[in-house]
Amino acid sequence: MTDIYKTKVCPLAKVMRRELKKRGVKKLKVVYSEEEPIRPLEDTSDNCNVEETCQENLEYKAAKRRSTPGSVAFVPSVAGLIIAGEVIKDLAKCE
Predict the structure, then answer these.
(1) Are 50 and 61 in contact (CB under 8 A)?
(2) Residues 26-81: pLDDT tens digits?
(3) What share of the chain is helix, strand, coil (3-state, %, to 5)?
(4) What was the pLDDT predicted at 83?
(5) Measured between alpha carbons, how far is 13 from 30 in angstroms, rounded to an integer?
(6) Contact 83, 31 (CB under 8 A)
(7) 28-35: long-range contacts at Cβ-Cβ below 8 A with a sequence spacing of 24 or more?
C-alpha cells in the first residue's frame, strides 16, 4: 500500500497520476506491484504487418494487436483482499 504518487513501474498508475493531477487530487491510497510488465510474444503465424497488404487483391491492412495486461487468476482477488484489509484498518482508526 502506498500513495499513487509514490508508485513506479506500473503503466496504469502513470496514466492515473496524470489524470489525478489534472483533477487536483493530492493523494490516493493504492495497491500496486513493482513487478516489471512483460510483453506477450508476437504472433508470427501470419506474415501481415500494418504497412503491408495481407492477401493479394485485398486492400485492407492488418490491425496490430495491443498487448493486454494479464495476471495469474488469483492475483486480482488477492489484491481485492489486500484493499479490503486496508479499508478495515482505516475504519478501525477512525473510531
Answers:
(1) yes
(2) 999 988 888 877 766 665 555 555 545 455 544 444 445 555 666 677 888 888 99
(3) 35, 5, 55
(4) 92
(5) 9
(6) yes
(7) 28/3, 28/4, 29/1, 29/2, 29/3, 29/4, 29/86, 29/90, 30/1, 30/2, 30/3, 30/4, 31/1, 31/79, 31/82, 31/83, 31/86, 32/2, 32/7, 33/9, 34/8, 34/9, 34/10, 35/9
Residue 29 DSSP class: E
Torsion of the alpha carbons at 20, 24, 29 and 30, rounded to the nearest 10: 0
In contact, 31 and 79? CB cutoff 8 Å: yes
- Separation CA 74–CA 82 (nearest Å): 12
At 70, list the grid cell: 494479464
* Geometric angle at alpha carbon 83, from 82 and 88, rounded to 5°: 100
Residues 6+ apart with CB under 8 A from 35: 9
